Please model this.
Amino acid sequence: MFEIGNNYGTGRPPGSRNKAPNRRQVVELLNSILSDLVLNYEELTKEDKIQLLKTFRHLFDSNETSSLLPDNEITIKIVQPNEAILPT
Model:
């Protein structure tokens, strides 16, 4: 496909950026995949479950987790109340 003499098309112009994915469609796809995984988890074989864990093992790596969540730090986010919800 990427050979000299390729006549399938000219491709993107030099310096052009990749097209950003539609965020809504990406979120819908991820929600669909997660829903399917949750609903059908018991149907997976042990090998399937192990493969999932291997794929996402970086999420459970204690070295990375400790750097993401330091033991001596607490983060608080203060959110302003929505005035329309508060009783008057």
Remarks:
- The chain has a mean pLDDT of 76.
- Residues 42-68 form one domain.
- Residues 23-39 form the longest helix (17 residues).
- The chain has three helices and no strands.
